[in-house]
Description:
Number of strands: 0
Radius of gyration: 18 Å
Distance between the termini: 49 Å
Structural class: mainly alpha
Order of helices and strands: HHHHHHH
Shape: globular
CATH topology of the largest domain: Hypothetical Protein Yqey, Chain: A, domain1
Number of helices: 7
CATH superfamily of the largest domain: Uncharacterised protein YqeY/AIM41, N-terminal domain
CATH class of the largest domain: Mainly Alpha
Amino acid sequence: MRELGVIEQRIKDDSTAALKAGDKRLREALSSFVAALKKERIDSRKEPTEADELTVLKRERKRRAEAAELYEGAGRQDLADQERYEEELLRSYMPEELSDAELEELVAEAVAACDAVTPKDMGKVMGWLRPKVAGRADGKKLSCMVREKLEG
Length: 152
């Protein structure tokens, strides 16, 4: 059997505690997170890194946010509230987002490390950055910062 990742094990432990405490809402939410992490672990056929787990949690958080907006638009506030609850719960398992200053510093470091000079080098720079910012920065924002730096 493959080893659980650090975050997956923490969520499983919290799920067990929620079960013992009789908190059905929390247990069900945590169980869905464990299922997403387990699916990714099985699909990837490798030992999960913390960056892999954070990528899954970030994707799940984004799905919850999008679903909440759709439910609100359809007048289903009860379902939207559940999605927002799960989105916030996911946020609690993720590290603090990097500040713009920290991102700019990392982008500058990546550009220098990759000897990037034109926007054609963006793939190399993003490949260098992704593992360093996994789960701690929005990919679209990061991409824009890299593009500005290389065009600049």
